[in-house]
Design a protein that fits this description.
Radius of gyration: 16 Å
Largest sheet: 9 strands, parallel
Number of helices: 8
Oligomer: single chain
Strand content: 15-25%
CATH superfamily: Alanine racemase
Bound molecules: pyridoxal-5'-phosphate
CATH architecture: Alpha-Beta Barrel
Low-confidence stretches: none
CATH topology: TIM Barrel
Mean pLDDT: 97
Number of domains: 1
Length: 216
Amino acid sequence: MRKEILKDLQPYGARLVAVSKTKPIAQIREMYEEGQRIFGENRVQELVDKRPQLPSNIEWHLIGHLQRNKVKYIADFVQMIHSVDSIALAREINKQAQKHDRVISILLQVRIAREETKFGIPAHDLDRFLEELLQLNLTHLSIEGLMGMATFTDDEEQIRKEFTELKNGFDRVKASFFPDHDHFREISMGMSGDYKIALEEGSTLVRIGSLIFGAR
Ligand SMILES: *Cc1c(COP(=O)(O)O)cnc(C)c1O
């Protein structure tokens, strides 16, 4: 299935984050041997347990909600954190990255779903959030784009609307805050059930678990 997905991604130039949460080392290694290099986990403990058992050139992405007090466990190796939704969290990532003399890539998680969720920056707060964030001059962060999760529903038009909202937010933020900043280029959206819609709406990073690894 991974091959078919890669074929779908190609015309869009999008990349695949293989979401390996709950999956055993052997299955992850198998996918690594097929050439997959970017893996995503949503829990710090699981990521920290798995990483030493797998090749060191894997690019690990943290895609789930991250508590501030856990940043220190992943700061020496994590490549990208997709779920930054508070200034306090951004500051902590910067602080821990600095300790390791690293720059960590981050995405700002935007709340686009109609479902009640605690996570993500409300879309209408995004500009204010960025103004505050950029004023801090956090030199150990590379702000590379936005992430969002659509409502869990069969209503494709609803999903499409939410992805469009994220894309519009990205375009607006890009124009206002990062016009000459090549690194601000990622839109992380699309999972097993909705990645094709996400690609059509401008995704650059799809996060796919069950479709390639099997149901959890
Ligand atoms: C689990 C998870 C995914 C992948 O979900 P699938 O439906 O298995 O593809 C994507 N993003 C986040 C944030 C997740 O937690």
